[in-house]
Amino acid sequence: MSSKDWIEKDYYAVLGVAKTAPADEIKKAYRKLARESHPDHNPGDSKAEERFKAVSEAYAVLGDDAKRREYDEMRSLFGSGAFRRGARQAGQPGGGVPFDVSDLFGGAPAGGGRFAGGGISDLFSSFFSGGAGGGGTTGGAPGPARGRDVETEVVLDFHDAVRGVTLPLTLRAPGVCDTCHGNGAKPGTQPRTCQVCHGAGVTTRNQGAFSFSEPCRNCQGVGTVVDEKCPECQGTGGVTKTRTLNVRFPAGVGDGQRIRLAGRGEPGERGGPAGDLFVHVKVRPDEIFGRSGDDLTLTVPITFAEAVLGTDLRVPTLDGAVTLRVPAGTPSGRILRARGKGVSRRDGQVGDLLVTLEVVVPARVSDEARAALETFVAQTPPAAREHLDARVRRFD
Ligand SMILES: [Zn+2]
Ligand SMILES: [Zn+2]
Questions:
Q1: Calpha distance 135→142 (Å, rounded)
Q2: CB 3.0-4.6 Å disulfide test: which of 10, 45, 118, 147 passes with 275?
Q3: Which residues contact 277 (CB under 8 A, 6 or more apart)?
């Protein structure tokens, strides 16, 4: 018995029991079927003989706890046709789009999405059990499924981030090709069953005592082959769909912030609600202004004389200019505040413009300036450094 048999044969169906049936129920079903189809009771009936063999084969696996577990695992990996689902059923709700890892990871962390809430192993078990398409392989029709969350990034101009802006965002997401409805075949043609794997999507390779199942190379695990490719999607059945949304970025949005737009993600399936759109905001730095929360920051160079004598400074704001009074005797590094010239907040409050004064020292001065400075020094007490001198004397 090869793993290919396990993949292809549904032993539960052969015995007419549910996948979840307890061992004694399986035993009972087997006994009944074996009795009915036993060659002794059906002499010369080849169909009954085949049936008896199939029933025995099924019970040999399902009647043994360890084998049954192994069988279930293998079936959940391959037997549900996980490799086939994507392409074959892409046109139907629940079929899903071709598997795309980047898409998967993009959608995962936002929470509430199709794959959200689980780790990698959850993601993959959900994929292999056929959950990737949103539909189960057993039971009735799948219920409504919430649309996937979508994440995207946008880079805002500094000014736009401070004042708020509405921008069109173009989102790209994989979708089903409208021309071929996902089967990849040119309109008017049909995909045909793969002759290598006979539609199973998997092939079995024997190597010594072992046999390996792998996705069919002829049809890439799809189970069908397209002779004339759909011109729209080049036979893949999937296309990248773009949609454009106008997104309002509130005034004061900051670099690294994430904005959630409820219901603006991918549409739900079978009546389920749409997912959310998460926009990661990056803010391009400005050449002169910085930001500290709701305050704008600006550094303004002044001369030593301006700091000593005082002056009026004309400084730019984000969309205008203001005059700031620098009082006589202002130390280097002092911060002046222009009220209400910062970032507006949603609650109506507005931050300030914080202006840092920085005394600049000329690298060279004229002879006249030097002479004037020497006169200045003669008229001025030295800087207060006694507290440092005490320490220095310890080493002199
Ligand atoms: Zn094939
Ligand atoms: Zn197509």
A1: 5
A2: 147
A3: 149, 150, 151, 152, 171, 245, 260, 261, 264, 265
What's the rounded Cα separation, in Å, for the pair 135 and 89?
Answer: 11
Amino acid at the residue 285:
P
Report CA(233)–ligand 2 centroid distance (Å).
4
Query: How long a stretch of residues is the chain?
Result: 396
Report how far ligand 2's centroid is from the alpha carbon of 186 (Å).
7
Q: What's 302's DSSP letter?
A: E
Using the mean position of ligand 2's atoms as its centre, give its distance from the Cα of residue 20 in Å: 39
Separation of CA 252 and ligand 2 centre (Å) = 44
124: its two tokens: 């993959």
Which tens digit of pLDDT belongs to each residue from 90-131? Answer: 333 333 333 333 333 333 333 333 333 333 333 333 333 333
| CATH number assigned to the domain comprising residue 161 | 2.60.260.20
Which residues fall within 8 angstroms of residue 86, CB to CB, at 6 or more apart? 95, 96, 97, 98, 99, 132, 133, 222, 237
CA of 388 to the centre of ligand 1 (A): 86
Do both 226 and 324 map to the same domain?
A: no
- Domain contains 368: yes
Q: Of the bound ligands, which one is closest to the alpha carbon of residue 235?
A: 2
C-alpha to C-alpha distance for 352 and 345, rounded to whole angstroms: 11
State pLDDT tens for residues 49-64: 888 888 888 888 888 8
Note whether 340 and 319 are within 8 A (CB): no
Among 231, 262, 283, identify where a domain stops. Answer: 283
CA of 179 to the centre of ligand 2 (A): 5
**What is the domain extent for residue 330?**
290-393
Give the pLDDT confidence of 303-336 residue by residue, as tens digits. Answer: 999 999 999 999 999 989 999 999 999 999 999 9
